Records
---
Amino acid sequence: MELPIVAPAPVVGDHAAVFRDLFENQCQFRHFQHYLTGLIVLPNKSMANIARCTLDSADKTNLSRFLSEASWREDAVNHRRIRFMLQQTASHRRRRRDSIVVIDDTLCEHVGSLFDYVDCHYNHSDGTYPLAHNPVTSFHVSGPVRFPLGLRLYRRYEELTQWEAAVAKHFPALPIPTNTKARNRLHKQVDPTLLQDPEFRARHEQFRTKIALAVELVEEAIRCKVPFGVVVFDAWYLAEDVVRVLARRRKDWISLLKKNRLLETASFHLRDAHGRPLKLPSPQIAVEELVPLIPTNAYRVMLKNSAGFGSLAGSEFSTALKRSRIHANGFRRIRPLMVRKSCVFRVTSGKPRSRAVAAINASGSRMRYCWRSVIVRCTTGSWSGISSKYASRRIACCNWSAVCG
């Protein structure tokens, strides 16, 4: 049995006054407080259950009408929340250059299909297609201060445009395949005709890719004056549109680079074992083709220094490991031969890799002064053990990559 809500929770009562002017009357503001209280204290956080447990409401549909019909603006409430959070955490946050914004998407799975915009989305972790919402989110991290910024709901093109119904309407005799490649070929065949339908075209223009939603979240964070210097995202969002916006906004970024991605050969210099420049055959080269070209003598065993931690001398950057020497399956530093003004690290799995991660994290305060790009190669596994301190360093992340091979 769930306890009834007789009054707003104390934490809600202490901070909700900041949002009072965003609502037209006291009734809307009271519904706002009760809804927040239900989200905090009730195990079942559905709107129906919150309305059922709220005693200060004669009509149990009041909460539903407040969320769906009342004339308050969701974006205004969220912007006020972000401003309030920034004010409250000002003394605990790190500098702008050491603060990050994380862009990612997630799946909110559901049992029934009565929810608006619910659809079958691909879950890359297990290869299934659960019934879910797929929001793209942004999250602020600045030392101990961490809170969400924004959210955009991603809707698949076929769900948003009601593509299958449109095909059945304009091409009733044409079967719709389930195979992905065959379906894409059908798109190319029928979409020019479907776009001539005004209703379908209006829905088509509402579609936003995850890349476009990520760009919107970054721009929103900047409009809300969130202080950050680095944006972190996975390989899915490593696209030209995102990189172009971050470059224009003077933001560094960290991501993962797939091994089949092409690199512009004019952006770096590669030398052979004798130090002579190598001329690459084409203006572009795949990462998996570039890594084997690094000469073996470019690897250097890291030695423990007397101080026990990393030190920075001139243009050299070194880091200390607990062991004085780590061999083939450990952590090695490559001389800056491949990329101009860069350090290249090679990390493998196992205990040596863990020591390497710990060593990099321990040297964070020094590495932020090393204005060079970093390439990390993970021969097995993924680069998941690195701390948020590493993500906050000012590194030219367009040359930062994790090559899993």
---
Amino acid sequence: MKIRTLMMAGMICNIFVLVAIMALFLFAADRNFNTMGRIVGQEVPGLVGAIDALAQGARCGIATRNVVINPADQKTRENFKDAAKQMDGAFDEAIAASGADPALKDELVRLKKLGDDYLATAWNIQEAAAAGNQGQAEAMLKEQEVPLWRDFRTKTLDLTRKNKQDFKQSAADVVATMKTSKNLILALGVFGIALLIGTSGYVFRQVLGQLGGEPAEVARIAKEVADGNLALELKQGQGGIYGAMSVMAADLRRIIEMVNAGSRQVSAAAAELDASARQSASLTQQALQQSHSVRWPARRCRQRAPTLPATATARRRIPGAPAGPPRMGRRSSAPPRPTWRTSPATSAAQPPSSNSWAPAPIR
């Protein structure tokens, strides 16, 4: 398999794992954010508003009883008005915050109506007490205000308990989601790391298998071979580029040795041929000298031989030929030339002395 394919496969697997981890993280974060948003934006305001309304209702009940006891206490009535105003504000805030939860909103609306009935009854009791109808005020307090307060308190506490249970469940869901997300992210992370290590190890083994050794060592050997250094100590039995370069270096050494051996043989043959040429030249020179020593006396003998009649010569050459009139040869009128003889013991011609006759050059 090609290195590029292996690296691409490993990269794709790692990207897939990272995308899965990111998607899981985003899913868990979105779920937790929604849950936390519901808790913070709906359940907590509803719980806090109900508790605050219950507390303000309790203040109103205390103020009503104080007015029944002391109708002339205007400060108590002002406290009642402030508590009633704060109770209405707490209900309004809780209802506004629970807009995304219709069930909780309906519960808060009914509870606010019950609270408004309680406040109206408490105000009527205070008015009766302030008008001097102490007995009527006490009767209304026992027959109307106490049942209304108990009903309002019970329903408010029930809603508070319900919101508290919802809050705990939501918090448990957030914790469970966070734990599940943590475990899944941890598992995917471990899987991604294992996949990365496995892919990297496989790619590393494939690359080293194709190189046959460390990349720096292979580069050094390639540079040494390129520079002409074939006397390298290479490990045997290696594969990949390292083994191929080892075989190449060995083949190059063998080829160079064969070329060197052939060159030495050619040099030896050239030396032998040169020696043979020199010997042939020496023998040729000796033969020329001997030929010169033989031809020169023979020519001198021909030059000194008398000229015979042509007829006699023809008779000697052609036996039985008819005899013709005798023809006398012409004798030279030049004086006789001096002769130069060689001794029998001397094989080579000797140059004449200064007062002797010089022979004509041999052509």
---
Amino acid sequence: MGTVPIRLGAWDCPFRRFPFGAPKFGDYMSKQIHPTIITLTVAVLAILISSCGKTDRKPVYHVQGKVFDKNNRPAVDALVVFHPLDSSDANPVKPIARVDDKGNFALTTYEKNDGGPEGEYVITIEWRRPASNPFGPNKEGKDLLLGSFSNPKTSKLKFKISNQTDNTVPPIYLH
């Protein structure tokens, strides 16, 4: 069974030289690219699966406290940050919290209100009111504490988180 040349004007059909017709795209894919795709897919999956079990999380312990302004009113929405004093840690974590409408806060490190890792910390606090124009360049207002408690190098607020189920920070009064 021979091939019949197809004439397209002055040009011959380019598939005329293949006795069984033109090669199919699927044939080319299965012989050339397909093994490469499989190899890459297996390599990526192996990397992803091997990294799933690893975690750099430190054990955390519940920490709670209260923050009030100079008139003993709750410092609602103030941001509380615990900065570790141990500078040798290659991956320090900084647990944070927001003060609620009763003045309470509970630290968050990895999940909401889970606490903080054991160690000594210096505490910083920033208390910002929302800006009058939420679409303006400054989405948050000025720090109501004027930066008095926002620098970990100058803050006098310190606390040690211990390996126990509940750590309570003494009430903080912002004067």
---
Amino acid sequence: MTFGDKLIELRKQSNMTQENLAEKLNVTRQTISNWELNQTKPDLDQLKSMSQFYMISIDELVDNEMKSIRVESSSENFSGGRETNKMLLKIKKLFINEDNSSNRKRKFKMYLITISIIVAFIIIFVATTGIWTRFNANISREKAMDIAVSHAGGGRANTPELDWKIWRWLWYVEVVYDGLMHEIYINPNTGEVVRYEIDR
């Protein structure tokens, strides 16, 4: 008797339809059908739920399947570790549903959603902060100095530094002119002065 046959027998003894049993075990009717047709196997949690529902141990639930594995393996030409591994793989398939494509599809969808969210976040961050400007400024340091001195009306400028201000990278230049400190922020792509302060 296969595992699927055992499930059919237990379900019929309980006078239940596949729909009724699916509802009790919190799975779909198609899942019950796949188990009974030996197309897929329940995972360990599902086996526990079934054993509790039918009030039998998991051992009793899978006993016939285990016997068939033992008979099959003993009838083979047993040549040590290789055959043992085959038997262990068959037992593993009883408890871990490796054919459960719906679980794989669900996990794959979750990975895609997670990756999409991460990529969207990176795109939004890069688009709103202009972070590429930090490495690819169109306006050179020398040009930023010239713009700052011109904007202040003259004077001596320090070496410009790229600074994170107003949610973007800007050239920050200090210009000393007429005894005053002029703080000037310049867009590194356009050369536009976006902020100008005089420290008195």
